[in-house]
Amino acid sequence: MWAKLYKHYKNKGIVHLLKLIAQRSYKNLVALPLYIAALPFALLMVILFPWVEIYLVKLISSRIGHYSMNIELLLCAMAQPEHQNCKKEWVLFYQHSGAGVCNKQLKLMWQRILPFLPFPKIAMKADKIVALMLRSTCYHQRYEFFKQYEVSSGNVDNQGLLSAHKPRLTFNAEELRLAKKMLKRLGIAKAAFVCLLVRDSAYLDRMNPDNDWSYHNCRDADVANYRDAALWLAEKGYYVLRMGKYTDKKFSVPHPRVIDYANHSLKSDFLDIYLAAHCRYFISTSSGLDGVAQIFRRPVLYTDVFPNIANIQFWYPAVLLQTKVIFDHQQNRYLTAFEVDKLFLNNRDTVRMLSNGRLELRNNTSAQILAAAKEMEARLTALEDNSPLQSQEQQLFIEQLRQRFLKHHGNKYQVAKVRIAMVNSFLTAYKDIYT
Questions:
Q1: Separation of alpha carbons 26 and 20, rounded Å
Q2: Which of 28, 86, 267, 349 yields a CA-CA distance of 20 to 30 A from 311?
Q3: How far apart are CA 260 and CA 230, in angstroms?
Q4: Contact status, residue 309 vs residue 289, Cβ threshold 8 Å
């Protein structure tokens, strides 16, 4: 702590340091009653420790990608033989206090299989007290196992867990009857459908308007570029449902089987989850709701993905990937994958790096998205027929992807679990980037 304060003093000066100390002192003073309320519960956990280990897990409830994937991956990991506790263990869950719940239906389904604690602020303080009191015991190692699923990186399936375990959540009979009625009203009672999720800044700007989310804008895409792909899928007999909690633009496509569900009067938290869980496949620009498709093991096609390694979801049930590309006007060429990783280690670098006019982020074109949809359809058919899928170029791409993960994450990710392929036409057009 002292090192951080000294660093702050060196960087910002004494005035800013005093302001920071005052803010932290006030924050701790306000939190004091919560620590007092949490103390009896924490002491009980410590007393029971020799007989039963009790762990508290915070859920990132405000972001649906984390509210779905982090929990699913934790439950799958707990079922792995190497992560099972030889002692009696209770794992209790609590919502992230003050952050709200992104989807009430998803919360309802988690509550059916997980023990939720009331008073999340008190639970969080109790968790900190117990971790401090038992930090020199075996409790700490198990505690760290759970903590890795409380952060944003907890939605990365670096162990191939989704392919090794069945989905944890199910719809009950009442929900299935409701879904049947709602789909009939939506007009797709017995038809196959594809979900389409194209990210824009509307959700974060609306839910957390006081924060600066501009560093996520590199992940946005233009839903109008998906019109041709939606029409092609509709002509094949699919219904195409444009998904999203809030959107900047409407998706107006002149076809009765293309539905802008995100702006539909029947849109609901329940249907958001049901549709993502039952689609033929899910097309996503790598945004939160595709996490629901993943936990129900629905195939995913990723398009318009920001091309740094931090944004590539390489695990099952991902099938195909198509990224944005970055053009360097000074060198008159596209940046290679390794160059992108070096310049854009994380999304927070994008605003600064893309604002000087030298580098241009280029989205997928309508033709590229259409080609991706066609290949996704062909690959799903091939997967069902057990046909060979990997070309030499794909093998080179996968090997490059493994090298990129090893370079930036070491052995953190089991890169042997890479399951995704690049869209063939895209890989051929940009082979200098990806092979």
A1: 10
A2: 267
A3: 11
A4: no
3-state secondary structure of 267: coil
CB 401, CB 418: distance < 8 Å: yes
**Which of 357 and 339 is assigned the larger pLDDT?**
339
- Number of neighbours of residue 94 by Cβ within 10 angstroms: 22
User: What's the burial of 82, exposed, middle or buried (CB within 10 Å: 0-12/13-18/19+)?
Assistant: exposed
Q: Which residue has the higher pLDDT, 242 or 345?
A: 242
Q: How many CB atoms lie within 10 A of CB 83?
A: 13
Residue 8: other Cβ atoms inside 10 A? 15
Q: What is the DSSP letter of 9?
A: H
Q: Which residue has the tokens 């029971």?
A: 48
Q: Which pair of structure tokens corresponds to residue 267?
A: 């849109």
User: Nearest to residue 251, comparing CAs of 223, 221, 220, 275?
Assistant: 223
Instruction: Return the SS3 of 25.
Output: helix
Domain boundaries, given as residue ranges, for the chain? 2-154, 182-434
Q: How many other β-carbons are positioned within 10 Å of the β-carbon of residue 338?
A: 15
| The amino acid at 403 | Q
Name the residue with higher pLDDT: 350 or 125.
125
Cα separation, 97 vs 105, whole angstroms: 19
Residues whose CB falls within 8 Å of the CB of residue 170, separated by 6 or more in sequence, listed in order: none
Bridge pairing between strands 318-323 and 281-284 = unpaired
- The pTM for the full model equals 0.89
Phi, psi (rounded to 5 degrees) for 102: -70, -30
Give the Cβ contact number of residue 84 at 10 Å. 10
Q: Is the separation of the CB atoms in 190 and 333 below 8 Å?
A: no
- Of residues 326, 365, 269, the one with CA closest to residue 67: 269
Residue carrying the six token digits 């033929």: 280
Q: What's the CA gap between 272 and 251, in Å, rounded? A: 17
Model confidence band, residue 16 (pLDDT cutoffs 50, 70, 90)? low
Closest C-alpha among 109, 350, 315 to residue 217: 350
Average pLDDT of 326-333? 95
**Dihedral angle computed from the Cα positions of residues 99, 102, 104 and 107, in that order, rounded to the nearest 10 degrees:** -70
DSSP track, 143-177? HHHHHTTSSGGGG--TT-HHHHS--S----HHHHH
- Output the pLDDT for position 260: 97
